[in-house]
């Protein structure tokens, strides 16, 4: 049986309150659980003692038995110490490189920048020659108007 230490939601609408429970991984989130080992109230200030209350000994015992904490619960358990060690060694769960575009997208962006730079150079060069070319066109238009 795969065991999880996870949050079970309680409280009413817009007023969340969670119980930290040990449950079978196949059980529903708010359904059957084996043991309740703590609570989490996200509405409390972050520095409040009442925000997270977990029985450290019970949590350490379940981790030794093989229960896997979810990311959020692992973060809580890493801040609790039993016998001078954190219950769980939690590593940062977010991937900072996830938001960066992939290799092909970076190549396409680089090609777009090169094309834009080339177009800017091309637009700058003919702009200097353009007045010289426009003058004969204006003269031709003036000659046609004069001949009519």
UniProtKB/TrEMBL annotation:
Presence of keyword Ribosomal protein: yes
Gene Ontology terms for molecular function: structural constituent of ribosome
Keywords tagged on the record: Ribonucleoprotein, Ribosomal protein
Biased composition range(s): Basic and acidic residues: 97-116
A matching Pfam family: Ribosomal_S16
GO CC terms in record: cytoplasm; small ribosomal subunit
Region of interest called Disordered, as start-end residue ranges on this chain: 88-148
GO biological process: translation
Ranges annotated as biased composition (Acidic residues): 130-148
Biased composition (Low complexity): 117-129
Domain of life: Bacteria
Family: Belongs to the bacterial ribosomal protein bS16 family.
Record's protein name: Small ribosomal subunit protein bS16
């Amino acid at each position: 049986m795969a065991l999880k230490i996870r949050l079970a939601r309680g409280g009413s609408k817009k007023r969340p309150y969670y119980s930290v429970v040990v449950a079978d991984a196949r059980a529903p989130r708010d359904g059957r659980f084996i043991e309740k080992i703590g609570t989490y109230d996200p509405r409390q200030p972050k520095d409040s003692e009442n925000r997270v209350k977990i029985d450290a000994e019970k949590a350490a015992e379940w981790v030794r038995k093989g229960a896997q904490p979810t990311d959020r619960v692992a973060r809580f358990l890493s801040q609790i110490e039993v016998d001078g060690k954190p219950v769980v060694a939690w590593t940062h769960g977010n991937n900072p490189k996830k938001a960066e575009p992939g290799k092909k997208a970076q190549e396409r962006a680089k090609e777009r920048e090169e094309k834009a730079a080339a177009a800017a150079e091309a637009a700058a060069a003919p702009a200097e020659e353009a007045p010289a070319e426009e003058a004969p066109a204006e003269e031709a238009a003036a000659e046609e108007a004069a001949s009519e």
